[in-house]
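Researcher: Here's the sequence for the chain we discussed earlier.
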Amino acid sequence: EVIPHVIYINNPKLGKKAGDRELILFNDILVASSLVSSKHHLSVFYQPLNAIWVSIVDTIEHHEDLFGLKIQGPENSWILCFENDPQRGDWLHAILERAGLTEETMGHGFRNGVFEYSDIGIYSGEFRDGKRIGFGKIELPSGWVFEGYTDENMCAGFGTAIEPTGESYKTGWREVSEGDLIIATKDEYGFWGIDNLTDRDWALIGTGADRLIKNKNEPIIVEGKKNENLYRILDGQLRVEKKVGSRTTVLAKMSSGRVFGETAVLPSLATATASVVSDEDGVELSSISITILFELFMNYPGLAMRFYRDLAIKTSSKLRVLTSGNQKKEEDLVVEDEESITEEEHVDPMRELINKFGLPSNEVLISEVDCAITGQFMKGFGKLYVFQSTIIFDSKVFGHSSREKINLRAVTDVRRKKNKLKIKAKKGKKWSFSDIENITEIMGLITSLWENVARPTEQSQRSDSKTLHKATSSRQEISKAEFTMTLDDWNLIKQTAATIIDYESGDKIIIEGEEQQRIYQIARGNVIITKLSDNGKEKILAEMNEGIIGEMSFLEPGPASASVVAGENGTSVYVIEGFIINALFVDHPDLAGRFFSYLAAVVAERLNQREKEMKKSSRSSRRKRAGGSVHRTRSRRNRNSLEKNIENY
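Model: Thanks. This is the structure I predict for it:
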């Protein structure tokens, strides 16, 4: 019988001219009739009972003598004003009863419902504390549908995007309000997607590559020595060799299209685990500068993510083979067995720029940035396009087009002066660019490209070459550090994408054979990794008191290859859900490359350790076999001697 006055928090002026009836409680919704208007979206005047949060308000601004209830919905909030506490209590009881809530759960926690927003369309799924956080589906007025995990705090999500045409793909998305739309920021090259490296990725990776010719038995990578290049076979055949005891064993053969040497990009792996040698005369290779690769990673976070993720998956596959116990012997292991790269037909949207600027068809656009060229009289604003061997500045002001073309082979100096990028070339040409937002990254990228195309080769330039190599090595170390997980990175993951779970001794954390896509970080205590043997008994593979577990199932969705149990009471682990961290990558794209770089390094280190264990086991088996042979020979000699002695006797 008591009808409260409703204050619309987003705009307290609304509802001032309302009649007596201000709030209607239905079985599934609350309606503030005083806010109903054809000028307002329905989200202003209704709240779904399956997606509301209720809290008691002790003090109401400008209404200190009234008693309040706050109704928090997915988009808007109200305050219900009552003359006394019993009236407020009656309404609170009625709302909680219809909504299926208790006084303990009314103000926080998860809900599952449907709501039509004023800007983004209809959302059906999970909410948490008034926001879209969890699994659900967003149906836009434009016809787009996004289904998966979404986090309104990050304005990002990850799952399946369905275009109005019906085409669907796995991707991430970022939410940007524009009228009644959410725009998915999936770029033309699958930036947020989980696809493998694309053709354009390989074109970018090949930027500044050297062509090498190797004759038979000439080494490219030497086991135990540092490798600082990424290679791709253009023509011919190579072999992968590894020392097993005192002999050299051929592990694999590689031919055109294969890529190897990727572990050079991992900060924690300094030396090669196998040798790669030319198997015939005239083998043609493309040698790719790791320094250039790091510069590309910093400018293209999506490329870094796909590259390191691809490397982590391939390394994980090799480790899974070793862990499964299906291998026959150490000599059969393929250390560098990368999939051939297939050329797919596609339309490159940057091809128009290459044609527009009259560049060679094999040019690749590396980066583009807004900037200004500083002239004698005034600035000219435009875009700076950085290709693998050419820089183009293009501007159009008041209908007048202006263009500067800089051939990197003609450049004599690149430097930064305050906030300006200065470039000098032969014949006294020079340019000055300002207003570059990411000037440090662009400076490093252009310098690396210039050093590659203008690399000195004459003996008379050896001193300059040494200086250049020193500068390049220094920048390479800095670049490697850019792709190392920092304390801030881990804190961000723990705060955003991780929950902590406590276990007692013997509790199962991961069960062998069960599918999951989680990563576990040991917080305290220790864990035991076990695997069922052929006779059904559990074999202990390792014990750990730090680091991550579950990374193989995260990289390659499928059954867990081993079980993990808590080794002692009070063991705690951080659980990182795959779908949440993928949404986090959308919000922090630079984090993705560092995270997958970390996973690739962890898996590669475990692969190396497993290979060492197998080698040690192989040596031990050979010693035992050799020892048994000597023992049997000696026994036969003793028995023959005894028989002869008996006969003589």
